Amino acid sequence: MTTDRIPVTVLTGYLGAGKTTLLNRILSETHGKKYAVIVNEFGEVGIDNELVVNADEEVFEMNNGCICCTVRGDLIRIIEGLMKRKGRFDSILIETTGLADPAPVAQTFFVDDDVRARASLDSIVTVVDARHVLTRLTDSHEAEEQIAFADVLLLNKVDLVTADEVAVVERRIRTINGYAPVHKTTRCGIDLDQVLDRRAFDLNRILEIEPLFLSEDEHQHDDAIKSVSFVLNRSLDAEKFQRWIGSVLREKGVDILRSKGILDFAGSARRHVYQAVHMLMDGAPGRPWARGDTRSSKLVFIGRNLDVDALRQGFENCAA
Questions:
Q1: Which of 38, 48, 39 is closest to 298 using CA atoms?
Q2: CA 81, CA 88: separation in Å to the nearest integer?
Q3: Percent of the chain having pLDDT more than 70?
Q4: C-beta separation of 285 from 212 below 8 A
Q5: Which one is predicted more confidently, 144 or 223?
Q6: Lowest-pLDDT range, 14-28, 117-131, 204-218, 293-307?
Q7: 208: which of 45, 95, 261, 262 is 20 to 30 A away, CA to CA?
Q8: Rounded Cα–Cα distance for residues 148 and 174 (Å)
Q9: Separate counts of helices (H) and strands (E) for the chain
Q10: Residues forming beta bridges with residue 121, ordered by sequence position
């Protein structure tokens, strides 16, 4: 990698594995570096850009499509635009949607001449959900590809499983990728030297995994997985929302791979950040609402067999 090319780190991993947690950890630590951040979402309503904690960074959002399919042209245009502003940042971080196959993302840095001349793919960092990955490997081609293409693997959420279960998961990961180092983490807690500036991407290794890597063949997603998004321009009653979302996850959590939201709770000066993976739910106060902000609530579900009308009605019934 020559010094005049901007290093790019791709953060990937299945829905809810902890990619945004890792991104926020990178942006929050004191390292003296400036990053340009590209965030991709699968759905019409953007949530992830609001989950990125450091507002000083340049965040470019691409939604309503997968970064490895319909919006890849947008990725190329954003990177080419960034290259014209060289000197304003040290590196580029790309957080893919949890449904992305990393191969077409990595292809971008080899098949587009302008991108290849100005940017270098430093590494693909894959975050793995220790609790759910074995299930995902049975029903998701993307989950396996994300692990296979990784230069660095974070086996995350090890606090949610037993030591024996961690060992089983690690052995399974090793059958897919015996090359990448595996770091066991809770909330993606790791020395950033282990994930950044690794110069770890090895094209020859990838060509062994996927000989047609440099071709531009399209890939297919699981058509059964859909994203639905809702926006409500009225404040929510916090207790109503907690009761409703709790019942939804208890009854439908097996089919809901991921849900997340930025919520306006009545009487609160701060946004409420809601996130869940299947039935595991978490919530915390977010950034304060600033003067002049249009307060609204955004909620996204990604999963199978989603009853859109019932979800919309239930969400609207949570209005204060």
A1: 48
A2: 12
A3: 85
A4: no
A5: 144
A6: 204-218
A7: 95
A8: 9
A9: 11, 12
A10: 8
Q: How far apart are CA 116 and CA 94, in angstroms?
A: 16
Distance of alpha carbon 280 from the chain centroid:
17
User: Mean pLDDT over residues 32-55, rounded?
Assistant: 61
Give 2's pLDDT tier (boundaries 50, 70, 90). very low
Whole-model pTM: value is: 0.73
Two tokens, residue 269: 């000066």
Count of alpha carbons within 13 Å of 301, Cβ hemisphere only?
23
- One-letter identity of residue 92: I
* Distance, C-alpha 210 to centroid of its chain: 23
Runs of H (alpha helix) within the chain? 19-28, 48-51, 72-83, 102-111, 113-118, 133-139, 141-148, 163-176, 203-209, 238-252, 308-316
Closest CA to 42 of 101, 87, 106, 122: 101
Both tokens assigned to 313: 């009605």
Reported as half-sphere exposure (CB side, CA atoms, 13 A), residue 214 has a value of 10
Q: Are 93 and 124 in contact (CB under 8 A)?
A: no
